[in-house]
Amino acid sequence: MTSSAPHPQLISSRDNPLLKEVKRLAHGSTDYRKFGRFWAEGDHLVRAALLRGVHPAIGIFSESFWPLAQEKYGQAAAKNIVIPDALYDGLSALESPARMGFVFDLPTAAPIQAELATVVLDRVQDAGNVGAILRSASAFGFKQIIALKGTAALWSPKVLRAGMGAHWGLHLLESAELTALDQLDLPLLVTSSHRGDFLHQLLQQRVLPMPCVWALGHEGQGICAELEARANQHVRIAQPGGEESLNVATAAAICLHASATAQLG
Question: How far does Cα 225 stand from its chain's mean position?
């Protein structure tokens, strides 16, 4: 063991209260709201956090992996715990456990930033879709996510994995009421498969606003009527291949990329 790494605590009982809590965080979608912290498993997520200056509270390692991980990740958290491999396997929710995971404190909810490029999620329920949208938002400069009630829990393990580290660079608000959007001071755009201006034509004309707010809706029902009524502009994506609709995460990537590059030469 390197002298600079915190000396790990060894835990071998599955009845340990902390491990019971972590198992709930690893397997549950909304338990993080009760405990005020969440679980992120694997190398990629913790590297993404550390690159943005976010440090975990607790590191948990399997016994066989700790000798390999301690030099690189031994100082990432203030406290490290090492547990038997079999106990870690029971803790993890992954089919192939990553052999290390970290407990992070849940960020304090911050107020909405009125002029920050934003994505509004209206009852987007699939965790994979939500995570993919967060990843696209981060890539294309939409740094604020407002998840309305009914949207998948933003800090759930599945959304975290699908987001691939995007969470650490985003301003996230969840379980928001529709009235929260009153605080935004940017044009609101909504997508539709049957009405509005074609996105590619807006790009050609260079009239797509940025910064702006894109609203994305439920996988089957789309945007609710109340949110649609707030829209400054309705936009549709041309589908010359003839499919009825696009997956919401795919549509999000197309729309966000279009806005991000609209003013480029």
Answer: 25
pLDDT tens, 198-244?
Answer: 999 999 888 999 999 999 999 888 899 999 999 999 999 998 887 77
Query: What are the tokens at 188?
Result: 């609101």
Ramachandran area for residue 2 (φ above 0: left; ψ -120 to 50: alpha; else beta): beta
Query: Torsions phi, psi of 171, nearest 5?
Result: -95, 105
**Integer Cα distance of 180 and 148 in angstroms:** 9
Q: C-alpha angle with apex 45: 105 to 258, nearest 5 degrees?
A: 105
| Dihedral, CA of residue 27, residue 125, residue 59 and residue 22, to nearest 10 | -30
Max CA-CA distance within the chain? 64
The strand pair at 144-148 and 100-105 is best described as unpaired
Q: How far apart are CA 46 and CA 75, in angstroms?
A: 12
Q: List residues bridging with 189 in a β-sheet.
A: 214, 233
Give the integer Cα–Cα distance in Å for 166 and 164: 6
